[in-house]
């Protein structure tokens, strides 16, 4: 039986980054993955493939809707979905192969198979196909559970994965839906809804709450709703879905709410994107004494240790945002803790990004949270319509909103929507990491003309110093 310092179950951005860091720190490490490719949800069926098709369709959208504004006539434009998907598959292969390289480089042993606990220090690895291949037993001083999450559904919806689908199937469609019905106006619904709306599908989003992306600062949902409606997506907010049924190639959705009390929609595909559930199936956690919380997540303390010392858990399978960078930050945290270091993760400063067009991002407290806390705060904002760079790029939809402590001017939250926001939010995270004030940002030189200047202007506005460009 081979003994390791660290055994990691799951090779997503939580597991593989933990493995890299363990390798760097000189720990004898192995990673177990049940699928043939490494990289988990994010690289195989999540972040990377979705961004690949978002990029392709964004180019198509620009070519069909914005080129004329720039004085470019492009005739006979045609989007070829199978070719877009083939490019996406090539991108996925490249990033997954990259993880294999990283494991080799950092001397991490890779085992393919389903891992399950035998006891608190022993894990069994069985062939994924359940076949007659050899089972292996491994022991380790430390075991990191990084088994991620799977799509959730509603109790009355059967996901047949052909017409009633999850994000995984939506990222691999070979034909363009005529009418894609989406249950859930969160991140997946809006990103994948955008992909198909840009290609010409009719897209209807049915959302339970009264806003889209409801967990982000409310301003962002309002602005994004306006933009997406202009792009042709239809929204049914405050609607409770009661049935989704398939007959042949037709899917029928029924929901309660709205002016007519009952909504009926008929389409050829229905994407169910109502969140994801932590995945611990088949792990046999009971054999190790690892407990779950009331939401089925692996219970952890503030050090990400489970109810059993020496067994840790990170990423989507534990509490907190289901984001790749959060999983990776936790992977580094646990690896460094095992190596005797004193790491830190600041959960308040984990940014959230939605890759629609315009892009949306937020970090820190939302205005709603500050109100709830009874905090006295100031709001500074700057519209993209006043940005020289946005005007030059003909991308003027959007704004930056900065929330500061009314007494100290410290930045408490930054919420943005607009072109290239996914990258600009990193500046806000950096400033907030050092507990910077809005006035500090006003003192930093920002290249002109850039979209990032909008963040500086919003900070000047929050600090009560007149905006320089408005
Ligand atoms: P996962 O990535 O889910 O990896 C877990 C791995 O564990 C899987 O490979 C699984 O096969 C393996 N495993 C499970 N059980 C066992 C077992 N018993 N034995 C062996 N292996 C096992 N996040 C972002 O930050 N940005 C984005 O743009 C983004 N886009 C997304 C788009 C989509 C469509 C989806 C679905 C998700 C997206 N996410 C995004 C979320 C992101 O993918 C997850 O937060 C992230 O993958 C979580 O990482 P993880 O390591 O915790 O788990
Ligand atoms: P989500 O939590 O973002 O959105 C789910 C939406 O479904 C919410 O708006 C919710 O109100 C709605 N909903 C819930 N029950 C409903 C019902 N019965 N009827 C109608 N609407 C209902 O979840 P998701 O979009 O499925 O994404 C899952 C996870 O994947 C998220 O946690 C997200 O962080 C992650 N992800 C991140 C990115 C990114 O970072 N860009 C992209 C995709 C996915």
Automatic annotation (TrEMBL):
Reactions catalysed: N(6)-[(R)-dihydrolipoyl]-L-lysyl-[protein] + NAD(+) = N(6)-[(R)-lipoyl]-L-lysyl-[protein] + NADH + H(+)
Cofactor annotation comment: Binds 1 FAD per subunit.
Gene3D superfamilies: 3.30.390.30, FAD/NAD(P)-binding domain (3.50.50.60)
Binding-site residues for NAD(+), renumbered to this chain: 184-191, 207, 275
Lineage: Bacteria, Pseudomonadati, Bacteroidota, Cytophagia, Cytophagales
Cellular component terms per the entry's GO annotation: cytoplasm
EC number: 1.8.1.4
GO molecular function, one term: flavin adenine dinucleotide binding
Database matches in InterPro entries: Class-I_Pyr_Nuc-Dis_Oxidored, FAD/NAD-bd_sf, FAD/NAD-binding_dom, FAD/NAD-linked_Rdtase_dimer_sf, Lipoamide_DH, Pyr_nuc-diS_OxRdtase, Pyr_nucl-diS_OxRdtase_dimer, Pyr_OxRdtase_I_AS
Pfam family, one: Pyr_redox_2
Disulphide-bonded residues: 42-47
Binding positions for FAD per the UniProt entry: 51, 147-149, 316, 322-325
Domain FAD/NAD(P)-binding: 4-331
Active site positions, chain numbering: 448 (proton acceptor)
Similarity section: Belongs to the class-I pyridine nucleotide-disulfide oxidoreductase family.
Designated name of the protein: Dihydrolipoyl dehydrogenase
Domain called Pyridine nucleotide-disulphide oxidoreductase dimerisation: residue spans: 350-458
Misc. remarks from the entry: The active site is a redox-active disulfide bond.
Sorted UniProt keywords: Disulfide bond, FAD, Flavoprotein, NAD, Nucleotide-binding, Oxidoreductase, Redox-active center
GO aspect biological process, one term: 2-oxoglutarate metabolic process
Required co-factors: FAD
